[in-house]
Recover the amino acids of this structure.
């Protein structure tokens, strides 16, 4: 019997984006996730996934023929340099500037960058300042 293992955060089990141009989205997300040290978990006909993010084409079985619309999604970054690298990778791979890297007034130490993905989703990378994690992720084995 095969054992599978998933790594999950504490709030979101998964998020699905249904996109108009899957190859363009895959190029964008592979590039920005690589900078954030998040590997692509898998691909298949009409989809790819990484961690909690599942991206599919409108004709995939999971999408039921409908695009998801515009969302704001924020990825965690290990530092300001990672946010800067995310921004550059996003722009070089089909993203559109929606807020250059910099400190934001949301709370002290909040450093983020905003980019629109090929479908117009507002995709952010954020570093919240000095912090310590008690674990990298929750591991689910089945």
């Amino acid at each position: 019997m095969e054992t599978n293992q998933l790594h999950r955060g504490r709030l979101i089990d998964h998020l699905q984006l249904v996109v108009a141009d899957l190859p363009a989205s895959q190029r964008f997300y592979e590039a920005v996730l690589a900078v954030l040290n998040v590997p692509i978990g898998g691909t298949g006909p009409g989809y790819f996934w990484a961690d909690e993010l599942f991206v599919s084409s409108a004709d995939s079985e999971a999408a039921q023929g409908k695009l998801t619309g515009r969302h704001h999604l924020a990825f965690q970054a290990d530092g300001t340099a990672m946010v800067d690298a995310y921004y550059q990778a996003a722009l070089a791979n089909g993203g559109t500037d929606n807020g250059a890297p910099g400190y934001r007034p949301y709370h002290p130490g909040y450093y983020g960058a905003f980019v629109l993905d090929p479908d117009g989703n507002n995709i952010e990378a954020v570093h919240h300042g000095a912090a310590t994690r008690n674990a990298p992720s929750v591991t689910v084995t089945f």
